[in-house]
Design brief:
40% helix; 3 domains; five-stranded parallel sheet; alpha/beta; Rossmann fold; 12 strands; 394 residues; five-stranded antiparallel sheet; Arc Repressor Mutant, subunit A; 17 helices; globular
C-alpha cells in the first residue's frame, strides 16, 4: 500500500511541487492537501498520512500551534513533519518540537524538497493499516479484495453490485474502515466506527435529543458502526420521519472522503446474517453509478489535490462508453448542461464561460464525470507539438 504525504499550505504551489517531486522520484506516494490549519486535522483524521509538509504561517493557525497540537495527540505525535519557514525560525521549530524532522527555507527548491522527502519516507516505513487488526472475521468469507491503485472506487462498487452479493464492502482508510452494507447487490448504507469522521459535516438536527442518549449513541457507533441516527431512531430518541434518507445521505457524505484520500485497499466480506441494526434497513433503488454520483457531489473543491484538478486549458471528451453511461445518470441541471457541451475540442474554460459557471464548479463536474469513467480529460500539453509548435511532417 502507498505512503501518504499531507501538504498543509494555503497555496497550491507547494503541493504541486511535492507531487511533481514524488511522482518523478518515488512510486506510489499519494499527496493530500489542506489549505487551512483546521482542515489539516480533518484530512489527518481521514487518511492518517505518513508525513506532513507544512507552511509555518497559515491563514487561520500559526505553524507552531499546528506542531504543538500534533505533538500532544498520541495519534499524530509520531508523524514526522517538514516545516517550510521564513529565515530565522528554523531553530524555534527544531528545538521545541520533536516531531519536526526538517526545516526548509521558503520557497523550497525541488532539490531541497527531494532530499527532505527522501530522508523522511525512508525513515518512516509503511506499516499495515491498523483497521484490519481491529476486525474479527472469517477470511473464508472474503469474496474479493483489491486496491484503488489498480481498481477504481467505481469498479469496486460495481463488483459488489454486479455479482448481487450480500455482505459488507470495507475500505481501509484509517484506524477504522468505511463500511458499505450491500444486500443482493443493492446498497443499504455506508458507515464507520470513526464517529468524528462520520459526523464532521453533519447539520445540527439533534437539538431535541437527550444528551445522555446522544453520548450512548456515539459510544455504540464506535463499538459497532451503527450510525448514530439509526441507533437513536431505534431507541425512540430521534423521531425524524426521514431517518432512512438521513442515514443514506450521511453514508454517501462519508463515502465522499474516499474519492480524495489517495489509494486505499478494500475487500468484500460475504455475510449470512446482518448485524441487528442492518437487518430491517431498506435497500436503495439507485444503481452504483447514481449512488456514487450522489456521493461525489459532497466532495469540496478544496479537498482535491493538485493531481485531481484538471488543466483549465484542457478539453473533456467522452470515453468509449461514456455517452452510454451518462444517459443513465440522474444529472442535475448544471451537470446536464455541462454534459451536452462536451465535444472533445472545446476547452474547459470555454465551456465554463459559455455556461456561466465558475471555474471551480466546472472542475468539480469534470472530477465527478472522470471518477464515473464518463469522460477522459486531455490536458493542453497533449496538443502541443514539438519544435515550437511546428509539425515534423514533410
Amino acid at each position: 500500500m502507498s505512503q501518504k504525504v499531507l501538504v498543509i499550505d494555503d497555496s497550491l504551489t507547494v503541493s504541486k511541487l511535492a507531487e511533481n517531486v514524488l511522482a518523478q522520484n518515488f512510486n506510489g506516494v499519494d499527496v493530500l492537501v489542506a489549505q487551512k490549519g483546521a482542515d489539516a486535522f480533518d484530512r489527518f483524521n481521514l487518511a492518517q498520512p505518513d508525513l506532513i509538509v507544512m507552511n509555518d504561517t497559515m491563514p487561520d493557525m500559526d505553524g507552531e500551534a499546528i506542531c504543538y497540537r500534533l505533538l500532544n495527540d498520541p495519534i499524530t505525535a509520531k508523524v514526522p513533519v517538514i516545516v517550510l519557514a521564513n529565515n530565522g525560525r528554523a531553530e524555534t521549530f527544531e528545538t521545541r518540537y520533536s516531531n519536526v524532522l526538517k526545516v526548509l527555507a521558503k520557497p523550497p527548491t525541488p532539490e531541497s524538497l527531494l532530499d527532505a522527502l527522501g530522508a523522511a519516507l525512508a525513515k518512516h516505513r509503511f506499516t499495515p493499516n491498523p483497521a484490519k487488526q481491529l476486525l474479527f472475521y472469517d477470511p473464508n468469507r472474503m469474496v474479493f479484495s483489491g486496491h484503488t491503485g489498480f481498481f477504481s472506487l467505481r469498479q469496486a462498487l460495481h463488483m459488489a453490485s454486479g455479482e448481487r452479493l450480500t455482505g459488507v464492502l470495507r475500505f481501509f482508510l484509517n484506524r477504522f474502515p468505511v463500511e458499505l452494507y450491500v444486500s443482493k447487490g443493492q446498497f443499504l448504507f455506508c458507515t464507520t466506527r470513526n464517529f468524528p469522521l462520520y459526523c464532521r459535516d453533519s447539520p445540527t438536527i439533534l437539538p431535541q435529543t437527550n444528551l445522555g442518549m446522544i453520548i450512548e449513541a456515539q459510544v455504540t457507533q464506535h463499538a459497532t458502526a451503527c450510525p448514530i441516527f439509526l441507533f437513536l431512531s431505534m431507541r425512540g430518541g430521534f423521531a425524524h420521519e426521514d431517518v432512512v434518507q438521513i442515514v443514506r445521505e450521511h453514508g454517501q457524505r462519508l463515502f465522499a472522503n474516499l474519492w480524495t484520500a489517495g489509494a486505499v485497499s478494500f475487500e468484500f466480506e460475504e455475510l449470512q446474517q446482518f448485524p441487528d441494526f442492518v437487518k430491517n434497513f431498506p435497500p436503495t433503488a439507485e444503481d452504483p453509478d447514481n449512488w456514487a454520483l450522489a456521493s461525489l457531489r459532497y466532495v469540496k473543491f478544496e479537498a482535491l489535490p493538485a493531481s485531481q484538478r484538471a488543466d483549465p486549458n484542457g478539453s473533456p471528451a467522452y470515453t468509449r462508453k461514456g455517452y452510454e453511461l451518462v444517459q443513465r445518470l440522474k444529472l442535475n441541471d448544471t451537470e446536464a448542461r455541462f454534459a451536452t457541451s462536451v465535444n472533445g475540442a472545446e476547452s474547459l474554460q470555454s465551456i465554463a464561460k459559455k455556461l456561466n459557471l465558475t471555474l471551480n464548479d466546472a472542475l468539480l463536474i469534470v472530477f465527478r464525470l472522470q471518477s464515473l469513467e464518463v469522460i477522459d480529460y486531455w490536458n493542453s500539453t497533449v496538443f502541443t507539438l514539438p519544435n515550437g509548435g511546428q509539425s515534423n511532417a514533410a
